[in-house]
Amino acid sequence: MKTQRDTIKLGKKKVNLMDLTGFIVKAKKNCYAGGGEKKILEDGSTLLTFQEGNFYYEDNYDGQIMAPGREIVRWKKPQGQRLWQMAYSGGIYRPYWIDEELVEKTFTFLKEQLSKVSFDSPFRGLENERQFGEVGGIAFGYECHTEGDISTFKGREHIWAIKEGDIFTQNYNGGLVIPKIEK
């Protein structure tokens, strides 16, 4: 994954894309993948937040087995200008919805993979490499593929268990939020 290495104007804000990418990686490692503090909102959804410097990050999702959500980076505060956004949707394949133990182990493995997010792969887990691991006696595999860069992208991640087969998939897309030009 190549990231543009310049400053871009997003409305009235000038944002260095390297700084933004570095912040996104740090925020992801400190929130869901890092076991960050969760807040349950009135609608029952889960919110994780992280703030550093000029950037504020939030990850809001609802559900567990099927848990669509979105991540947003804003300028400085929760109500600040949106700079970047990613939406994701997917989850556990239906035949496994009732297997609570397998679901829990799958999400433990997913968190391990998401903790590998990097500057060159700032969206989900490591890009274009099969990853393998074991959780509670179950051997898992993980793949993640993204098209695009931090400014506009789409991708898919997928988890399988060696014995059970395909268990989890998730699609994601997003990019920079560029406001309408004011006259």
Note the main attributes of this structure.
single chain; 2 helices; alpha+beta; two-stranded antiparallel ribbon; nine-stranded antiparallel β-sheet; 183 residues
Task: Describe what you observe in this structure.
The protein is an alpha+beta fold and 183 residues long. It has one domain (7-176). Helix content is 16%, strand content 44%. It contains two helices and eleven strands, in the order ββαβββββαββββ. The chain has helices at residues 17-30, 100-114, and strands at 7-10, 13-16, 39-40, 46-52, 55-61, 69-75, 82-92, 131-135, 138-149, 152-161, 165-176. It has a nine-stranded antiparallel beta sheet. Strands 1-2 form a two-stranded antiparallel ribbon. A hairpin with a 2-residue loop joins strand 8 and strand 9 (138-149). The longest helix is centred in the middle third of the chain and has 15 residues, at 100-114. The termini are far apart. The relative contact order is 0.17. The model has no long low-confidence stretch (mean pLDDT 92).
